[in-house]
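Annotated sample (chain length 377).
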Amino acid sequence: MTAPRLDIDLGAIAGNTRILVDRLAPVGIRVTGVSKALRGLPDVAEAMLRGGATGLGDSRVENLQRLRAGGVAAPLTLIRSPMLSQVEQAIRMSDTSLNTEPAVLAALSAAALNHGTTHGVVLMVELGDLREGIAADDVVSAALSVERLPGLTLAGLGTNLACQSGVVPDQRNMDDLSRLVEAVEAARGRTLSVVSGGNSANLAWALSSDDIGRIDELRLGESILLGTEPLHRNPIAGLRTDAFTLVGEVIEAKTKPARPWGEIAQASFGHQAPRRGGGTIRQAIVALGRQDADPDGLTPPEGITVLGMSSDHLVVDVGDHDVAVGDELAFGLDYSALVRAATSPFVTVSPHTAGQTRASRTGARAENGNSKEIPHH
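Output written by the structure step:
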């Protein structure tokens, strides 16, 4: 098998989705699976749908096009405001989009009429995180203005917290969203079909609140893919955290001094190399770089330490592991590392069907017949 590669356990993704869907269903919240971290990979999208997601969301029209081309049959939502330069594609590739700007809404209206279709709009409300959102005092008038635009239908309201400023979704801000929903419904005389409370950061609130109000949908990505919540990056009980493994090939393995020598300045990415003790270490270089992953987001195999990463070289202390050139090392990933690996043109994305064991899908590399993989834990 080729390296570097991103091994994906589709069974783990489907299973995580099913658990979250089943936990949220009793309180009346449905799940939209977010595929943006994997660039709209149809295999991952289908795993989310098998797990019970009612639709899919992505932030880029190119990824939505990939889903459509891959035969994914599910409602698709563009979860970033369409660029004015892409409103035609947004109309063709998505059923619904998240919006805040009158100019974009006007352009969407014209594009929808041009294509003879009706496009759903979810207006995003600013509730403190200071990313996208309409001010609360302007929401009712914005909603009524959407109603006057031909080719558009107001599907609902939504918000996004935690991504920009780390604002925690709680009872107060979710109640604020519910009150705005009721105000809009009173003004328009019709019920909204979507009240999108946020992302994976909302899970703790949604599963512990005594009153979720009008919230009826969450957009879940990180929790499904990695089994973690984004507020503190803690594992979610019952979910798999090993759906993704980044595998790299060793291209050098030598015993070297633990400390560099000579005058020390900045390293390749402007950082100062950490000072280490004396003596020697067993050092290996893996053919992975910052173009492929975030070094701070990698979890190496037990007993192996990441020492540094340049554009194309990942340097590790392999400790007592017997590592040779041609061996593969397998790393766990956090969300930052996953996004970069999935979007690197140098990393082969390798999804595997549910039910395959780790041993059956990895193991020795076929090219040289004697290489081994050291998995992360």
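Annotation: The chain has two domains: 10-226, 244-374.
Annotation: Residues 31 and 313 are 39 Å apart (CA to CA).
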